[in-house]
Design goal:
16 helices, 38% helix
Length: 513
């Protein structure tokens, strides 16, 4: 029996059972897979094993067969993943079929049925990498602001030296322009760019323009989606941003949707393509309590509030979408030029004779049936200084051993995405706290944690149980993330910071109630 041919039949069974292909599509899918494996004929017979819930085990076995046959360089993980996309691409419905089915379900059964179908499709195709995502470490951290959610992200593997060497030899490429462009659908990939034969997107109309909805392959939370423009245009926070966000949550009221800021340091990892992120998830920030309420004669129908959150945010609620957009426009326009030197806020600095802007906003929208549209507007400032060269309102250096990357939209909302290195490092530090490892040896292996290890020993000693050590590290990492968010907040949660916040709101024409 040819193992690959047998596994192909099992994969075809999986595709039919999970709605990737219909019965008649099996002929085409089988022949495509036989061609990929250079096989002249299929397995004769019907596999009797149960159809799995996920394709991971079947794919891994097929990829092992392909690697042994020299169909890709088995030493390079990126090429293994790209070959997997080719396999699952043979089982995928066409882009137009996915879009048509999504629209059909939206119109017949509503937005939740449409997104559930699309999400299940992305899981069944292994585009959403469920097995890898399950490895992530996650816990809650209760603090004075409510609950923060902490994750150590283990889904994206480190690049090996051979991959890095191959990348250096590749010629410069400009297609696709970035990983968010619609041209990614069906793309074969290369060692430094993922294959996307199993990638599908669905069109949505926002502010009268065609945008697209897709899911993240490495979801950080339930139904983690990305909404991106059809054109390859840079991130920009403006009037259309607010209109698009509110249009999206009107179309999908069970989703939250927000935008990363459009400036370096306070923006996301992709500033070259205008996009939002959202999902069927209630983030910790959405549970933040009201601190103060404000009234605006210009916007009498809106509820305007400050919230108890480490990153100061202005929460505005109303049932008139256009009124919210007008208010958000005013906040953005006023904030872009607002300076308060007493709070270390400067809207502009001079650099080589040019006026450099520093103020922008991270906007987040969701919908609640009893309240209407809710938008959190988070003031951001990306100015640096001699004391804080990475950013005044950026994680400061005492936090960098835990988190030094930009604080983007997801983390603003209270969900920490921490680097994978922390898993192994925390296991070693836990051994110090239980007395089974030398503090000096661990500090030498991870010098960035040396001061932290000394603090932990001073606080907890070295006689904890394994469970107590893990719990202590979870608390301390949560506390670090809380401070990290406080560093990021433009208006601090101090008496002076609250006064500075009130000065800005007064400049907006808002009166504290």
């Amino acid at each position: 029996m040819n193992t690959a041919a047998y596994l192909i039949e099992r994969l075809l069974q999986f595709g039919r059972a999970h709605g990737l292909i219909e019965e008649l599509d099996t002929y085409v899918a089988r022949n495509t897979l036989l061609d990929l494996f250079h096989l002249e004929e299929p397995y004769e017979g019907i596999p009797t094993e149960p159809v799995p819930q996920l394709p991971t085990e079947l794919l891994n076995a097929l990829l092992d067969c392909a690697g042994e046959a020299g169909l890709y360089d088995a030493e390079i993980y990126a090429l293994r993943v790209n070959f997997e996309a080719r396999l699952m691409g043979a089982l995928m419905p066409r882009e137009s079929e996915v879009a048509a089915r999504f629209t059909e379900l939206y119109e017949a059964k509503g937005p939740r049925a449409a997104t559930e179908y699309f999400y299940r499709l992305c899981i069944a195709s292994n585009y959403i990498r469920t097995a890898e995502i399950a490895k992530n470490i996650k816990w809650d951290y209760p603090c004075k602001y409510g609950n923060l959610e902490i994750t150590i992200n283990l889904t994206k593997p480190e690049k090996d030296p051979k991959t890095i060497a191959m990348e250096r030899l590749l010629p410069a490429a400009s297609y696709p322009k970035c990983m968010l462009c619609p041209e990614n659908i069906g793309y074969a990939g290369r060692v430094n760019f993922p294959a996307r034969q199993y990638h599908r997107i669905v069109p949505v109309t926002l502010a009268g323009e065609r945008w697209f909805l897709q899911y993240s392959p490495y979801v950080y939370y339930n139904e983690h989606c990305i909404v991106f423009g059809e054109k390859h245009e840079p991130m920009q926070i403006d009037h259309l941003t607010f209109q698009r966000l509110l249009d999206f949550v009107e179309l999908f009221p069970h989703y939250t949707c927000g935008s990363n800021a459009d400036l370096p340091i306070v923006g996301g990892s992709i500033l070259s393509h205008n996009h939002f992120q959202g999902g069927n998830y209630r983030f910790p920030m959405q549970n933040a309590k009201t601190v103060s309420s404000y009234a605006s004669a210009e916007f009498p129908t809106l509820t305007i509030e400050s919230i108890a959150w480490p990153i100061a945010a202005l929460r505005v609620t109303g049932k008139d979408k256009n009124e919210l957009i007008r208010f958000a426009d005013k906040v953005l326009a006023d904030w872009k030029t607002y300076s308060d030197p007493a709070a270390d806020i400067l809207a502009f600095t001079e650099e080589d004779g040019n006026k450099v802007p520093h103020n922008t906003i991270t906007p987040i929208a969701h919908f609640e049936a009893d309240k209407g549209y809710i938008m959190d507007l988070v003031p951001r400032n990306n100015r640096t200084s001699a004391e804080f060269p990475e950013g005044i309102f950026h994680p400061h250096r005492e936090i960098h051993h835990i988190k030094k990357e930009n604080i983007g939209l997801i983390e603003v909302m209270g969900l920490a995405i921490l680097p994978s290195r922390l898993k192994q490092q925390c296991e070693e530090i836990a051994n110090v706290l239980t007395g089974s490892a030398s503090a000096e040896a661990v500090a030498v292996a991870a010098p960035e944690h040396a001061d932290w290890i000394a603090y932990l020993i001073n606080r907890y000693g070295t006689a904890l149980t394994a469970h107590e050590a893990e719990a202590a590290l979870h608390r301390e990492i949560g506390a670090k993330f809380e401070v990290c968010l406080e560093h990021t907040g433009v208006f601090k949660q101090t008496p002076e910071g609250v006064q500075a916040y009130d000065r800005f709101l007064a400049a907006l024409g808002c009166t504290k109630l």
